[in-house]
Amino acid sequence: MKRSLALLLLVLLFSCSRQKVEKVHAFSDGIYLVKQQGLYGIVDAHDKAIVPCTYDSITTNGSSPLTLSQGLWGMIDLQGNILLPNAYQFITFDGDKAMTKKDGLWGMADVQGNILIPNAYETLTFDGSLAMCQRNGLWGMVDLQGKSIIPNEYESIRFDGSLGVTVKQGLWGMINMQGTVLIPNEYDSLSVNGNQVSLYRKGNKSLVTL
Fold this sequence. Notes:
The structure is a single chain. 22% of the residues are buried. The protein has a domain at 20-88. With 210 residues, it is mainly beta. Helix content is 8%, strand content 63%. It has one helix at residues 2-17; strands at 22-28, 31-36, 39-43, 49-55, 57-58, 66-69, 72-76, 82-88, 90-94, 97-102, 105-110, 115-121, 123-127, 130-135, 138-143, 148-154, 156-160, 163-168, 171-176, 181-187, 189-193, 196-201, 204-209.
């Protein structure tokens, strides 16, 4: 009886270790996303493991799949190289750029895993080659190499085309997308009409042309 039980245990253990690997998606060139015992990995055309089945999820976007492990996201390539470690609460692609969230702060990476903007901002929105960013509640602007174009010192920045209206310590001014201050923050309010700017300070109005 003991021998029979031992043999049964060995059979069960062998069966568990050989649980079927299920192919769930074809990437390209015979590379497959696979699932085994509820975990995901990647194999080649000969069923050789490129990425072992250790992830809770692997997305199927392009050549840089996202991986999920213990609630955190990372990024790999189809050769099994880790491009971004599983340290991010959020990763989402917009074209060839990825917005990332790490320790509650936003940054940006590319599809090769290069960090373009470090995870240092409470809010980050980008359009073209520039990104509006908020740090410690104050707004500024960086380029996609992480270089500061407008320092984070404004309560508000609102662009209309290439011109931005700024508020700093409650006072209004204007700036352009190169970070040049056009009108210093010295006014109670202002209004823009084409290239004419009406400035208001202590009940007085003045007019400037940009």
